[in-house]
Amino acid sequence: MTVLITGGSRGIGAAVAKRFASVGMNVVIHYLQSHEGANEVARSCLDYGVKVLTVTADVRSKEQLLRMKEKLAAHGMQPDILVNNAGTAHYGMLADVSEEEWDQVMAVNLKGMFLTTQMFMPYMISQRYGRIINVSSVWGLTGASCEVIYSTAKGGVIAFSKALAKELAMSNVTVNAVAPGAVDTEMMGHLDQDEKSALQSEIPAGRFAMPDEIAALVYFLALPEAGYITGQVISPNGGWFT
Q1: Within a domain: residue 240?
Q2: Family assignment (predicted)?
Q3: Is residue 241 part of a domain?
Q4: Catalytic residue check, 123
């Protein structure tokens, strides 16, 4: 079995890659610019004795994704499991958002997921088995002030997952979304320590999630035993939103 993780060079993506490698699955780590980060994750995965491949592509570019697909095929690593994790955030009042910023967030979070899924789902359909897991956000469920375009994009990830699940269910390909709450990754870097403490005080669990905890959920959804779970949105958020 092979898993492809987009945005796999750090944070949740890196944790997902290591989790799958730890159970003996071959891993493809996609990245855009973080070459050394991807190689570091790859080295950790290789310690488990699995086959590992790093690939770079702009998920907004169909041409680059086609080249990536050809490279995977040449290495015999067509993915049985696709984790669409690549994304970008934006912070600021909607009144201050430029058209270029809007296009950028939508292109990475939505167009990238669409192109990557469309690129790799035919193989899953042909073998009548596959798992597609899309990483959304709790803000895709509830919305967040000063994160309107990010919330909109992640809400789109959820709608995409629910709709595609219905298309692919008869092919034994499941599609689910994971919508994490606050996770201790670089995406929290815009907050200072006081802001982090204030945010943690709002979360019943009293802390941020660790990337490994999100990776555990992604792994569960990829299991053969999870074949009856499709079109679902699961939000590990420490009781923050229920």
Answers
A1: no
A2: Belongs to the short-chain dehydrogenases/reductases (SDR) family.
A3: no
A4: no
